[in-house]
Amino acid sequence: MSQITMSFLDKVKNLFSTKPAEVPSSTEDTNDANILQPTISSPEVITVPNADNATFSPEMDIIPFWLENEDALRDEGVIFGLSESKAEEKIASIRNYFAHQTAELEKTVEYHSEKIGEINLLIEQKETRIHELTEKTRVLENKERTDHQLLRTAIGVTLSLAMCVGNYYLIDESILKNFPQNHRVIALGVFLAGMFNLFNPKSLFHEKDTKISWRQLLEEVGMPLAASVFVFVQALETQSVLRSIALFLFVFFLFLFAGKLLLSNLTVLKTDSGIWLDNLRLEKDKVNKSKEWEEEIEKLKAEIDEQRMDKWKIVDTLKFPEAELKRLNERREMLVKLFESEFNLARSYREKLTGKQIQDILK
């Protein structure tokens, strides 16, 4: 197959350009008249040589010449355009060749890109952890101690216990004459009976906007009143009426309020103790946990710096295969467009040309 050194358009232009005929110089009258006009031969059947449309195989060691030479590729486009061959065959050969050329490069780029993605994920996880630790440190540093009244509550509990103990001894002293042998046990029983209202969570006297039934009132006041009346009767034998009445009222109101005061102080004591322990823990955490978190943050930052260095090493390694892959892909698209351009141009002129003219173009 002969090589076509001129573009297809130039061939067509030269084909239709006029050429003057050579005449003797002695005939002056016919010097300008005798010019031969181009003659178009009658249509005839012309056979166009088959183009080299063999598909490139990775096992082939020989690269087709038309892939290394752009002028040769233009010739292939013209030959395919003037023949009955399809452009897709040659384009598939071009893409197949470059697919073989870029296969290893694509694997290399994919491998290094995955490594970069893994490193980016690790860096993101460590940065998230750093943000969490920084936020925890800030919250811990800004957290203030909670006020409490532990000392006051402890004194209140002590006084409430003293009131209860004093009430017990007062009852014991009042019944000592009538029950000389088991007066301590009896006094304890009377004391516990009077403290029966301790089992109610809250005194009815502290309830607001609540309707109190007679059963609730009896449950709240019945046992303290009965215990106080028992003490009053025992005191009448050894004390005056006035003292006995005073003892009755004193013991009755101690039963009603001292127990509830003791339980309330115990509840407050538990709450204040928890607050006090939390404050101690807060001070300890501000020293220990803040230091621990700062050390972890510094360690994570060092790991991130190291991973970023590894990442940039991979990025540097990736630059060459990416650039080479881009160059080959651009080269492939350029060759495809070049072939398609010559093919389409030749195909558009094929119906307008005679077999003789096609043969002249292919010479």
UniProtKB/TrEMBL annotation:
Residue intervals passing through the bilayer: 150-171, 183-205, 217-236, 242-263
Protein name: Uncharacterized protein
Coiled-coil intervals: 116-143, 283-310
Species assigned in the record: Emticicia oligotrophica (strain DSM 17448 / CIP 109782 / MTCC 6937 / GPTSA100-15)
Swiss-Prot/TrEMBL keywords: Coiled coil, Membrane, Transmembrane, Transmembrane helix
Transmembrane in keyword set: yes
